[in-house]
Amino acid sequence: QVQLVESGGGLVQSGGSLRLSCAASGSILSINAMGWYLQAPGKQRELVAGITSGGNTNYADSVKGRFTISRDNARNTVYLQMNNLKSEETAVYYCDADLDEGPDYRRSRREYWGPGTQVTVSS
Description:
Elements: E1 2-7, E2 10-13, E3 18-26, E4 28-39, E5 46-52, E6 57-59, E7 67-72, E8 77-82, E9 91-101, E10 108-113, E11 117-122
Parallel strand pairs: 2-11
Antiparallel strand pairs: 1-3, 3-8, 4-5, 4-9, 5-6, 7-8, 9-10, 9-11
């Protein structure tokens, strides 16, 4: 089993910054990619940013230049630095991991989600 735990959410004023963290733990053999998604009330979950094991990144157009995704492979942790936040980015932010889990003789590839962390941006 694998667990993802997000942290770093909270209340911030428009134009402010937050840094989210997501740590993966459990029977992890390797992590292929990790990402951050947001889900605003009444809307579908959408990709914010993703990063591969090799460090390749992709971002939603709306956050380019303001958000930065990074990862610490040794700690199985992904970060999302969010600057110049906007009120419309108030949402629950979820961490996602595409990984191989073990034991090694029964290796399988799965996707896991964290429980989410609330980000509220006041205008």
